[in-house]
Amino acid sequence: MPNVSSLAASLNPATPTDMVARAELSEIDASAKWPVIVFLLSGLAWLLIGTGFALISSIKLHTPEFLGDYEWLTFGRARTAHLNSVVYGWSTNVAFAVAFWLMARLSRAKLRHGGLLIVAACFWNLGVTIGVIGILAGDSTSIEWLEIPPYATPLLFVAYALVGVWAVITFRFRKSEHIYVSQWYLLAALFWFPWLYSVAQIMLIFEPARGTVQALVNWWFAHNVLGLWFTPIGLAAAYYFIPKVLGKPIHSYYLSVLGFWSLAIFYNWAGVHHLIGGPVPAWVLSAGIAASLMMVIPVVVTAINHHFTMVGSFSALRYSPTLRFVVFGAVNYTLVSLTGSAMAIRGFNEVTHFTHFTVAHAHQGMYAFFTMVMFGSVYYILPRLLLKEWPSATLIRTHFWATAIGITFYWLELSIGGWIQGTEMNNANIAFIDVVQHTIPWLFLRSVAGIVITVGHVAFAVNVGWMLLMRRPAGVTAPTLFHSPTPLPTPSVR
Amino acid sequence: MNRGPLIFLGIFFALAFSWTGVVLTNQIQYGSLTPY
Protein backbone atom coordinates (compact mmCIF):
# COMPACT_ATOMS: atom_id res chain seq x y z
CA MET A 1 0.00 0.00 0.00
CA PRO A 2 1.55 3.32 -1.01
CA ASN A 3 2.43 5.72 1.73
CA VAL A 4 0.65 8.91 0.76
CA SER A 5 2.59 11.48 2.68
CA SER A 6 5.88 10.14 1.39
CA LEU A 7 4.37 9.82 -2.11
CA ALA A 8 3.60 13.54 -2.23
CA ALA A 9 6.97 14.32 -0.76
CA SER A 10 8.82 11.88 -3.02
CA LEU A 11 7.34 13.38 -6.18
CA ASN A 12 8.78 16.67 -5.11
CA PRO A 13 10.80 16.74 -1.89
CA ALA A 14 10.29 20.47 -1.72
CA THR A 15 6.51 20.05 -1.38
CA PRO A 16 5.36 22.35 1.43
CA THR A 17 4.46 20.52 4.65
CA ASP A 18 0.85 21.75 4.65
CA MET A 19 0.37 20.51 1.09
CA VAL A 20 1.72 17.08 2.07
CA ALA A 21 -0.69 17.02 5.01
CA ARG A 22 -3.60 17.96 2.73
CA ALA A 23 -2.64 15.23 0.25
CA GLU A 24 -2.53 12.76 3.09
CA LEU A 25 -6.01 13.74 4.35
CA SER A 26 -7.38 13.58 0.84
CA GLU A 27 -6.03 10.03 0.38
CA ILE A 28 -7.50 8.98 3.73
CA ASP A 29 -10.88 10.38 2.68
CA ALA A 30 -10.62 8.54 -0.64
CA SER A 31 -9.96 5.25 1.17
CA ALA A 32 -12.99 5.78 3.43
CA LYS A 33 -15.26 7.11 0.68
CA TRP A 34 -17.36 4.11 -0.38
CA PRO A 35 -17.74 2.35 2.99
CA VAL A 36 -18.79 5.63 4.63
CA ILE A 37 -21.17 6.54 1.80
CA VAL A 38 -22.81 3.10 1.84
CA PHE A 39 -23.38 3.29 5.60
CA LEU A 40 -24.61 6.91 5.34
CA LEU A 41 -27.08 6.24 2.52
CA SER A 42 -28.37 3.09 4.25
CA GLY A 43 -28.85 5.17 7.37
CA LEU A 44 -30.68 7.86 5.44
CA ALA A 45 -33.05 5.29 3.92
CA TRP A 46 -33.79 3.92 7.40
CA LEU A 47 -34.32 7.44 8.72
CA LEU A 48 -37.10 7.97 6.17
CA ILE A 49 -38.61 4.53 6.81
CA GLY A 50 -38.41 5.02 10.57
CA THR A 51 -40.02 8.46 10.27
CA GLY A 52 -42.93 6.89 8.36
CA PHE A 53 -43.48 4.30 11.11
CA ALA A 54 -43.17 7.07 13.72
CA LEU A 55 -45.95 9.10 12.11
CA ILE A 56 -48.20 6.06 11.75
CA SER A 57 -47.79 5.03 15.38
CA SER A 58 -48.09 8.60 16.65
CA ILE A 59 -51.36 9.22 14.77
CA LYS A 60 -52.75 5.88 15.95
CA LEU A 61 -52.41 6.96 19.58
CA HIS A 62 -54.93 9.78 19.22
CA THR A 63 -56.87 8.40 16.19
CA PRO A 64 -56.95 4.61 16.72
CA GLU A 65 -59.02 3.91 13.59
CA PHE A 66 -56.21 5.25 11.36
CA LEU A 67 -54.99 2.23 9.30
CA GLY A 68 -56.91 0.19 11.82
CA ASP A 69 -57.66 -2.67 9.42
CA TYR A 70 -54.08 -3.59 8.69
CA GLU A 71 -52.74 -6.36 10.89
CA TRP A 72 -49.12 -5.49 10.00
CA LEU A 73 -49.57 -1.90 11.12
CA THR A 74 -51.20 -2.27 14.52
CA PHE A 75 -49.74 0.14 17.07
CA GLY A 76 -47.59 -2.50 18.77
CA ARG A 77 -45.92 -3.45 15.48
CA ALA A 78 -45.63 0.01 13.89
CA ARG A 79 -44.15 1.56 17.03
CA THR A 80 -41.66 -1.30 17.42
CA ALA A 81 -40.76 -1.12 13.72
CA HIS A 82 -40.13 2.63 14.22
CA LEU A 83 -37.83 2.04 17.18
CA ASN A 84 -35.78 -0.64 15.45
CA SER A 85 -35.62 1.27 12.15
CA VAL A 86 -34.24 4.39 13.79
CA VAL A 87 -32.03 2.68 16.38
CA TYR A 88 -30.45 -0.15 14.36
CA GLY A 89 -31.16 1.29 10.91
CA TRP A 90 -30.54 5.04 11.00
CA SER A 91 -28.57 5.63 14.21
CA THR A 92 -26.23 2.64 14.05
CA ASN A 93 -25.52 3.02 10.33
CA VAL A 94 -24.69 6.70 10.68
CA ALA A 95 -22.70 5.97 13.85
CA PHE A 96 -20.60 3.43 11.92
CA ALA A 97 -20.06 5.92 9.08
CA VAL A 98 -19.02 8.79 11.33
CA ALA A 99 -16.92 6.53 13.57
CA PHE A 100 -14.99 5.14 10.61
CA TRP A 101 -14.29 8.51 9.11
CA LEU A 102 -13.25 9.99 12.46
CA MET A 103 -11.05 7.02 13.30
CA ALA A 104 -9.29 7.15 9.92
CA ARG A 105 -8.80 10.92 10.09
CA LEU A 106 -7.61 10.98 13.70
CA SER A 107 -5.34 7.96 13.24
CA ARG A 108 -4.02 9.48 10.00
CA ALA A 109 -4.38 5.98 8.56
CA LYS A 110 -6.07 4.84 5.40
CA LEU A 111 -9.04 2.53 5.75
CA ARG A 112 -7.71 -0.84 4.60
CA HIS A 113 -9.76 -3.25 2.47
CA GLY A 114 -12.84 -1.05 2.50
CA GLY A 115 -14.67 -3.59 0.31
CA LEU A 116 -15.14 -5.86 3.31
CA LEU A 117 -16.78 -2.98 5.15
CA ILE A 118 -19.26 -2.66 2.33
CA VAL A 119 -19.98 -6.39 2.80
CA ALA A 120 -20.49 -5.65 6.51
CA ALA A 121 -22.91 -2.85 5.60
CA CYS A 122 -24.87 -5.30 3.41
CA PHE A 123 -25.04 -7.87 6.23
CA TRP A 124 -26.09 -5.24 8.76
CA ASN A 125 -28.83 -3.79 6.60
CA LEU A 126 -30.05 -7.21 5.52
CA GLY A 127 -30.28 -8.16 9.20
CA VAL A 128 -32.21 -5.00 10.09
CA THR A 129 -34.51 -5.42 7.06
CA ILE A 130 -35.34 -9.03 7.97
CA GLY A 131 -35.74 -7.92 11.59
CA VAL A 132 -38.17 -5.08 10.82
CA ILE A 133 -40.20 -7.23 8.42
CA GLY A 134 -40.27 -9.92 11.12
CA ILE A 135 -41.57 -7.38 13.64
CA LEU A 136 -44.28 -6.23 11.23
CA ALA A 137 -45.22 -9.89 10.65
CA GLY A 138 -45.70 -10.38 14.38
CA ASP A 139 -42.42 -12.12 15.26
CA SER A 140 -41.18 -9.47 17.71
CA THR A 141 -39.49 -10.88 20.80
CA SER A 142 -41.36 -8.23 22.85
CA ILE A 143 -38.18 -7.48 24.80
CA GLU A 144 -37.63 -3.73 24.78
CA TRP A 145 -34.82 -2.62 22.42
CA LEU A 146 -34.24 -6.27 21.43
CA GLU A 147 -37.41 -6.87 19.45
CA ILE A 148 -35.63 -8.07 16.30
CA PRO A 149 -36.47 -11.79 15.91
CA PRO A 150 -33.65 -14.26 16.70
CA TYR A 151 -33.41 -15.43 13.07
CA ALA A 152 -32.09 -11.99 12.03
CA THR A 153 -29.54 -11.37 14.76
CA PRO A 154 -26.73 -13.66 13.45
CA LEU A 155 -26.46 -11.34 10.43
CA LEU A 156 -26.01 -8.39 12.77
CA PHE A 157 -23.28 -10.23 14.67
CA VAL A 158 -21.33 -11.02 11.49
CA ALA A 159 -21.62 -7.40 10.35
CA TYR A 160 -20.53 -6.03 13.70
CA ALA A 161 -17.55 -8.37 13.88
CA LEU A 162 -16.29 -7.00 10.55
CA VAL A 163 -16.95 -3.40 11.57
CA GLY A 164 -15.30 -3.71 14.99
CA VAL A 165 -12.24 -5.47 13.64
CA TRP A 166 -11.78 -2.86 10.92
CA ALA A 167 -11.98 0.03 13.36
CA VAL A 168 -9.37 -1.59 15.60
CA ILE A 169 -7.11 -2.27 12.58
CA THR A 170 -7.35 1.38 11.53
CA PHE A 171 -6.45 2.43 15.06
CA ARG A 172 -3.62 -0.13 15.21
CA PHE A 173 -2.01 1.24 12.04
CA ARG A 174 -2.31 4.84 13.18
CA LYS A 175 0.46 7.23 12.29
CA SER A 176 -0.47 9.79 14.90
CA GLU A 177 1.20 9.15 18.27
CA HIS A 178 -1.31 11.27 20.09
CA ILE A 179 -4.64 9.60 20.92
CA TYR A 180 -7.27 12.35 20.78
CA VAL A 181 -10.26 12.40 23.12
CA SER A 182 -12.63 11.44 20.27
CA GLN A 183 -10.63 8.24 19.78
CA TRP A 184 -11.06 7.26 23.43
CA TYR A 185 -14.82 7.52 23.02
CA LEU A 186 -14.81 5.65 19.69
CA LEU A 187 -12.68 2.79 20.98
CA ALA A 188 -14.81 2.48 24.09
CA ALA A 189 -18.08 2.50 22.15
CA LEU A 190 -16.86 -0.08 19.63
CA PHE A 191 -15.75 -2.34 22.49
CA TRP A 192 -18.79 -1.88 24.74
CA PHE A 193 -21.55 -2.41 22.19
CA PRO A 194 -20.79 -6.06 21.25
CA TRP A 195 -20.41 -6.95 24.94
CA LEU A 196 -23.79 -5.45 25.79
CA TYR A 197 -25.52 -6.92 22.77
CA SER A 198 -24.14 -10.42 23.14
CA VAL A 199 -24.89 -10.67 26.88
CA ALA A 200 -28.43 -9.42 26.28
CA GLN A 201 -29.00 -11.81 23.38
CA ILE A 202 -27.74 -14.81 25.34
CA MET A 203 -29.48 -14.02 28.64
CA LEU A 204 -32.77 -12.81 27.17
CA ILE A 205 -33.30 -14.60 23.85
CA PHE A 206 -31.22 -17.77 23.49
CA GLU A 207 -30.95 -18.95 27.13
CA PRO A 208 -33.33 -16.66 29.05
CA ALA A 209 -32.53 -15.90 32.67
CA ARG A 210 -35.30 -16.50 35.18
CA GLY A 211 -37.65 -13.96 36.73
CA THR A 212 -36.64 -10.37 37.31
CA VAL A 213 -33.03 -11.04 36.38
CA GLN A 214 -34.39 -10.67 32.85
CA ALA A 215 -35.54 -7.15 33.65
CA LEU A 216 -32.13 -6.29 35.14
CA VAL A 217 -30.31 -7.59 32.07
CA ASN A 218 -32.79 -5.83 29.78
CA TRP A 219 -32.24 -2.41 31.35
CA TRP A 220 -28.52 -2.92 31.80
CA PHE A 221 -28.49 -3.45 28.03
CA ALA A 222 -31.10 -0.95 26.83
CA HIS A 223 -29.89 2.03 28.85
CA ASN A 224 -26.27 1.28 28.05
CA VAL A 225 -26.98 1.15 24.32
CA LEU A 226 -27.81 4.83 24.74
CA GLY A 227 -25.05 5.65 27.19
CA LEU A 228 -22.19 3.44 26.06
CA TRP A 229 -22.83 3.19 22.32
CA PHE A 230 -24.67 6.23 20.94
CA THR A 231 -23.51 8.74 23.56
CA PRO A 232 -19.75 8.08 23.11
CA ILE A 233 -20.09 8.28 19.31
CA GLY A 234 -22.04 11.54 19.63
CA LEU A 235 -19.50 12.98 22.08
CA ALA A 236 -16.59 11.83 19.90
CA ALA A 237 -18.12 13.78 17.01
CA ALA A 238 -18.79 16.85 19.17
CA TYR A 239 -15.23 16.80 20.54
CA TYR A 240 -13.92 16.61 16.98
CA PHE A 241 -16.17 18.99 15.05
CA ILE A 242 -16.53 21.90 17.51
CA PRO A 243 -12.78 22.64 17.69
CA LYS A 244 -12.29 21.63 14.05
CA VAL A 245 -14.83 24.09 12.65
CA LEU A 246 -13.67 26.86 14.99
CA GLY A 247 -10.00 26.19 14.26
CA LYS A 248 -8.92 26.14 17.88
CA PRO A 249 -8.11 23.43 20.44
CA ILE A 250 -10.59 22.03 22.93
CA HIS A 251 -10.70 24.14 26.10
CA SER A 252 -9.23 21.65 28.57
CA TYR A 253 -7.51 18.30 28.08
CA TYR A 254 -7.91 17.46 31.77
CA LEU A 255 -11.67 18.09 31.74
CA SER A 256 -11.85 15.74 28.73
CA VAL A 257 -10.10 13.01 30.74
CA LEU A 258 -12.36 13.55 33.74
CA GLY A 259 -15.48 13.58 31.55
CA PHE A 260 -14.52 10.36 29.77
CA TRP A 261 -13.64 8.26 32.80
CA SER A 262 -16.53 9.48 34.93
CA LEU A 263 -18.93 8.58 32.11
CA ALA A 264 -17.27 5.17 31.74
CA ILE A 265 -17.57 4.40 35.44
CA PHE A 266 -20.99 5.80 36.31
CA TYR A 267 -23.18 5.47 33.23
CA ASN A 268 -23.17 1.69 33.03
CA TRP A 269 -24.80 1.36 36.47
CA ALA A 270 -27.53 3.91 35.76
CA GLY A 271 -29.93 1.78 33.67
CA VAL A 272 -31.51 -0.02 36.61
CA HIS A 273 -33.24 3.22 37.64
CA HIS A 274 -35.89 2.12 35.09
CA LEU A 275 -36.87 -0.55 37.62
CA ILE A 276 -37.48 1.74 40.60
CA GLY A 277 -40.42 0.25 42.46
CA GLY A 278 -39.91 -3.10 40.79
CA PRO A 279 -39.28 -6.49 42.42
CA VAL A 280 -35.48 -6.46 42.22
CA PRO A 281 -32.92 -6.29 45.06
CA ALA A 282 -33.08 -2.88 46.75
CA TRP A 283 -29.30 -2.44 46.78
CA VAL A 284 -29.19 -2.66 42.97
CA LEU A 285 -31.75 0.13 42.66
CA SER A 286 -29.89 2.28 45.18
CA ALA A 287 -26.64 1.74 43.29
CA GLY A 288 -28.40 2.68 40.04
CA ILE A 289 -29.86 5.85 41.55
CA ALA A 290 -26.47 6.83 43.01
CA ALA A 291 -24.77 6.26 39.64
CA SER A 292 -27.47 8.28 37.86
CA LEU A 293 -26.85 11.22 40.17
CA MET A 294 -23.08 10.87 39.80
CA MET A 295 -23.62 11.27 36.05
CA VAL A 296 -23.90 14.99 36.77
CA ILE A 297 -20.08 15.00 36.91
CA PRO A 298 -19.31 13.92 33.30
CA VAL A 299 -22.23 15.92 31.97
CA VAL A 300 -21.27 19.20 33.65
CA VAL A 301 -17.59 18.67 32.87
CA THR A 302 -18.33 18.06 29.18
CA ALA A 303 -20.70 21.04 29.06
CA ILE A 304 -18.04 23.32 30.57
CA ASN A 305 -15.44 22.02 28.15
CA HIS A 306 -17.65 22.56 25.09
CA HIS A 307 -18.93 25.92 26.32
CA PHE A 308 -15.48 27.38 26.97
CA THR A 309 -14.30 26.09 23.60
CA MET A 310 -17.16 28.05 22.03
CA VAL A 311 -16.60 31.24 24.07
CA GLY A 312 -15.59 34.05 21.75
CA SER A 313 -16.76 32.13 18.67
CA PHE A 314 -20.52 32.02 19.03
CA SER A 315 -20.89 34.15 15.91
CA ALA A 316 -19.68 31.13 13.88
CA LEU A 317 -23.09 29.56 14.57
CA ARG A 318 -24.55 32.03 12.07
CA TYR A 319 -22.53 30.51 9.25
CA SER A 320 -21.57 26.88 9.78
CA PRO A 321 -24.27 24.17 9.38
CA THR A 322 -22.01 21.59 11.03
CA LEU A 323 -21.38 23.76 14.06
CA ARG A 324 -25.02 24.73 14.46
CA PHE A 325 -26.27 21.12 14.41
CA VAL A 326 -23.46 19.86 16.66
CA VAL A 327 -23.83 22.65 19.23
CA PHE A 328 -27.61 22.13 19.29
CA GLY A 329 -26.91 18.45 20.00
CA ALA A 330 -24.28 19.21 22.65
CA VAL A 331 -26.62 21.57 24.53
CA ASN A 332 -29.30 18.90 24.47
CA TYR A 333 -26.82 16.33 25.78
CA THR A 334 -26.47 18.47 28.89
CA LEU A 335 -30.21 18.98 29.26
CA VAL A 336 -31.23 15.37 28.65
CA SER A 337 -28.58 13.98 30.97
CA LEU A 338 -29.50 16.28 33.83
CA THR A 339 -33.17 15.40 33.32
CA GLY A 340 -32.18 11.72 33.34
CA SER A 341 -30.43 12.16 36.68
CA ALA A 342 -33.53 13.87 38.09
CA MET A 343 -35.74 11.05 36.78
CA ALA A 344 -33.73 8.59 38.87
CA ILE A 345 -34.73 10.34 42.11
CA ARG A 346 -37.48 8.27 43.69
CA GLY A 347 -39.92 11.17 44.25
CA PHE A 348 -39.52 12.41 40.67
CA ASN A 349 -39.69 8.89 39.29
CA GLU A 350 -43.01 8.25 41.05
CA VAL A 351 -44.55 10.86 38.75
CA THR A 352 -42.71 10.24 35.48
CA HIS A 353 -42.58 6.42 35.45
CA PHE A 354 -44.95 4.80 32.89
CA THR A 355 -45.79 8.19 31.34
CA HIS A 356 -45.10 10.05 28.10
CA PHE A 357 -42.47 12.05 30.01
CA THR A 358 -40.11 9.09 29.50
CA VAL A 359 -40.90 9.06 25.77
CA ALA A 360 -40.05 12.77 25.54
CA HIS A 361 -36.81 12.13 27.45
CA ALA A 362 -35.80 9.25 25.14
CA HIS A 363 -36.41 11.37 22.04
CA GLN A 364 -34.40 14.24 23.47
CA GLY A 365 -31.48 11.86 23.94
CA MET A 366 -31.68 9.94 20.69
CA TYR A 367 -32.79 12.79 18.47
CA ALA A 368 -32.10 16.25 19.92
CA PHE A 369 -28.63 15.12 21.04
CA PHE A 370 -27.39 12.15 19.01
CA THR A 371 -29.18 12.58 15.69
CA MET A 372 -28.54 16.32 15.51
CA VAL A 373 -24.82 15.76 16.13
CA MET A 374 -24.84 13.11 13.39
CA PHE A 375 -26.58 15.50 10.96
CA GLY A 376 -23.87 18.08 11.67
CA SER A 377 -21.17 15.45 11.11
CA VAL A 378 -22.68 14.43 7.75
CA TYR A 379 -22.67 18.08 6.63
CA TYR A 380 -18.94 18.14 7.24
CA ILE A 381 -17.96 14.69 5.99
CA LEU A 382 -19.91 14.27 2.75
CA PRO A 383 -18.39 17.24 0.83
CA ARG A 384 -14.92 15.91 1.66
CA LEU A 385 -15.76 12.45 0.35
CA LEU A 386 -17.57 13.55 -2.80
CA LEU A 387 -15.31 16.57 -3.46
CA LYS A 388 -18.30 18.80 -4.07
CA GLU A 389 -20.30 21.17 -1.91
CA TRP A 390 -23.88 20.97 -0.69
CA PRO A 391 -26.11 22.20 -3.52
CA SER A 392 -28.62 24.16 -1.44
CA ALA A 393 -28.14 26.28 1.68
CA THR A 394 -31.93 26.78 1.76
CA LEU A 395 -32.49 23.04 2.16
CA ILE A 396 -29.91 22.91 4.96
CA ARG A 397 -31.64 25.83 6.64
CA THR A 398 -35.02 24.09 6.23
CA HIS A 399 -33.52 20.90 7.63
CA PHE A 400 -32.09 22.65 10.68
CA TRP A 401 -35.08 24.76 11.63
CA ALA A 402 -37.66 22.02 10.96
CA THR A 403 -35.80 19.44 13.05
CA ALA A 404 -34.70 21.87 15.79
CA ILE A 405 -38.14 23.44 16.23
CA GLY A 406 -39.89 20.08 15.75
CA ILE A 407 -37.91 18.16 18.35
CA THR A 408 -37.90 21.04 20.86
CA PHE A 409 -41.68 21.34 20.58
CA TYR A 410 -42.01 17.54 20.76
CA TRP A 411 -39.92 17.34 23.91
CA LEU A 412 -41.58 20.31 25.58
CA GLU A 413 -45.22 19.40 25.00
CA LEU A 414 -44.80 15.69 25.67
CA SER A 415 -42.87 16.42 28.88
CA ILE A 416 -45.69 18.66 30.09
CA GLY A 417 -48.35 16.16 28.99
CA GLY A 418 -46.40 13.30 30.57
CA TRP A 419 -46.00 15.14 33.87
CA ILE A 420 -49.73 15.87 34.02
CA GLN A 421 -50.42 12.23 33.15
CA GLY A 422 -48.14 11.11 36.00
CA THR A 423 -49.71 13.36 38.62
CA GLU A 424 -53.19 12.25 37.54
CA MET A 425 -52.25 8.55 37.65
CA ASN A 426 -51.06 9.08 41.23
CA ASN A 427 -54.45 10.56 42.13
CA ALA A 428 -56.81 7.76 43.12
CA ASN A 429 -59.82 10.04 42.57
CA ILE A 430 -59.23 10.22 38.80
CA ALA A 431 -60.38 7.21 36.76
CA PHE A 432 -57.69 5.69 34.56
CA ILE A 433 -59.79 6.16 31.40
CA ASP A 434 -59.98 9.90 32.19
CA VAL A 435 -56.20 10.05 32.52
CA VAL A 436 -55.89 8.37 29.12
CA GLN A 437 -58.34 10.79 27.52
CA HIS A 438 -56.55 13.80 29.00
CA THR A 439 -53.38 12.75 27.16
CA ILE A 440 -55.04 12.94 23.71
CA PRO A 441 -54.41 16.67 23.05
CA TRP A 442 -50.72 16.20 23.92
CA LEU A 443 -50.49 13.18 21.64
CA PHE A 444 -52.08 15.17 18.83
CA LEU A 445 -49.47 17.91 19.33
CA ARG A 446 -46.81 15.19 19.17
CA SER A 447 -48.05 14.23 15.71
CA VAL A 448 -47.84 17.89 14.63
CA ALA A 449 -44.23 18.02 15.86
CA GLY A 450 -43.55 14.77 14.01
CA ILE A 451 -44.83 16.26 10.74
CA VAL A 452 -42.51 19.28 11.19
CA ILE A 453 -39.56 16.95 11.79
CA THR A 454 -40.52 14.95 8.68
CA VAL A 455 -40.26 18.13 6.58
CA GLY A 456 -36.67 18.47 7.81
CA HIS A 457 -35.86 14.86 6.93
CA VAL A 458 -37.25 15.26 3.41
CA ALA A 459 -35.17 18.44 2.92
CA PHE A 460 -32.08 16.54 4.08
CA ALA A 461 -32.77 13.58 1.79
CA VAL A 462 -33.38 15.85 -1.22
CA ASN A 463 -30.14 17.72 -0.56
CA VAL A 464 -28.15 14.46 -0.24
CA GLY A 465 -29.70 13.05 -3.43
CA TRP A 466 -29.10 16.28 -5.33
CA MET A 467 -25.50 16.37 -4.14
CA LEU A 468 -24.87 12.79 -5.25
CA LEU A 469 -26.33 13.36 -8.70
CA MET A 470 -24.89 16.78 -9.53
CA ARG A 471 -21.68 17.13 -11.48
CA ARG A 472 -18.48 17.84 -9.64
CA PRO A 473 -17.42 21.43 -10.34
CA ALA A 474 -14.23 21.94 -12.30
CA GLY A 475 -12.62 24.30 -9.83
CA VAL A 476 -12.50 24.76 -6.08
CA THR A 477 -15.84 25.92 -4.67
CA ALA A 478 -16.54 27.73 -1.42
CA PRO A 479 -18.24 25.76 1.37
CA THR A 480 -22.04 26.02 1.56
CA LEU A 481 -22.82 28.18 4.60
CA PHE A 482 -26.03 29.59 6.06
CA HIS A 483 -24.82 33.11 5.31
CA SER A 484 -21.74 34.47 3.58
CA PRO A 485 -19.40 35.91 6.18
CA THR A 486 -18.83 39.64 5.86
CA PRO A 487 -15.56 40.10 3.98
CA LEU A 488 -12.79 41.76 5.94
CA PRO A 489 -12.05 45.32 4.82
CA THR A 490 -9.19 45.50 2.34
CA PRO A 491 -6.26 47.27 3.96
CA SER A 492 -5.31 50.41 2.11
CA VAL A 493 -1.85 50.40 0.61
CA ARG A 494 0.07 53.60 0.96
CA MET B 1 -3.86 9.40 27.75
CA ASN B 2 -1.75 8.19 24.88
CA ARG B 3 -1.37 4.56 25.92
CA GLY B 4 -3.81 2.33 24.03
CA PRO B 5 -3.49 -0.72 26.34
CA LEU B 6 -4.27 1.36 29.43
CA ILE B 7 -7.32 2.88 27.76
CA PHE B 8 -8.45 -0.62 26.80
CA LEU B 9 -8.00 -1.93 30.36
CA GLY B 10 -9.94 1.05 31.70
CA ILE B 11 -12.90 0.60 29.38
CA PHE B 12 -12.87 -3.16 29.98
CA PHE B 13 -12.99 -2.88 33.78
CA ALA B 14 -15.55 -0.05 33.66
CA LEU B 15 -18.15 -2.26 31.97
CA ALA B 16 -17.00 -5.40 33.80
CA PHE B 17 -17.79 -3.56 37.05
CA SER B 18 -21.48 -3.06 36.22
CA TRP B 19 -21.79 -6.41 34.43
CA THR B 20 -20.60 -8.11 37.62
CA GLY B 21 -22.83 -5.99 39.84
CA VAL B 22 -26.05 -5.83 37.87
CA VAL B 23 -26.00 -9.05 35.84
CA LEU B 24 -23.68 -11.67 37.33
CA THR B 25 -24.30 -11.09 41.05
CA ASN B 26 -28.07 -11.21 40.66
CA GLN B 27 -27.94 -14.20 38.35
CA ILE B 28 -25.89 -16.10 40.96
CA GLN B 29 -28.00 -14.82 43.84
CA TYR B 30 -31.47 -15.66 42.56
CA GLY B 31 -31.33 -16.28 38.82
CA SER B 32 -31.66 -20.04 39.12
CA LEU B 33 -34.45 -20.14 41.70
CA THR B 34 -37.32 -22.35 40.62
CA PRO B 35 -40.90 -21.09 40.94
CA TYR B 36 -42.31 -21.92 44.40
List keywords for this structure.
heterodimer; A: 494 residues; mainly alpha; Cytochrome C Oxidase, Chain A; 16 helices; B: 36 residues; 1 helix; 0% strand; rod-shaped
Q: What would you note in describing this structure?
A:
The complex is a heterodimer of chains A (494) and B (36). Chain A is mainly alpha-helical. Chain A contains 16 helices and no strands. Chain A has helices at residues 4-11, 17-62, 75-107, 114-136, 153-172, 181-206, 213-246, 253-270, 282-294, 296-310, 321-343, 346-352, 356-386, 393-425, 432-438, 440-469. The termini of chain A are far apart. Chain B has 1 helix and no strands. In chain B, 25% of the residues are buried. Chain B is rod-shaped, with a radius of gyration of 15 Å.
Helix content of chain B: over 70%
- Provide the domain count of chain A: 2
Number of helices of chain B: 1
User: How widely separated are the two ends of chain B?
Assistant: 52 Å
Q: For this structure, what is the CATH homologous superfamily of the largest domain in chain A?
A: Cytochrome c oxidase-like, subunit I domain
Shape of chain A: globular
Total strand segments of chain B = 0
Question: Average pLDDT across residues of chain B?
Answer: 89
Largest interface: A-B, 36 and 25 residues
Distance N to C terminus of chain A: 54 Å
Q: What integer value in Å does the Rg of chain B equal? A: 15 Å
| Residue windows where pLDDT falls under 50 for at least 5 positions of chain A | none
> Which structural category do the helix and sheet elements of chain B fall into?
mainly alpha
Succession of helices and strands of chain B: H
Strand content of chain A: under 5%
In DSSP terms, counting alpha (H) and pi (I) runs of 4 or more, how many helices of chain A? 16
Structural class of chain A: mainly alpha
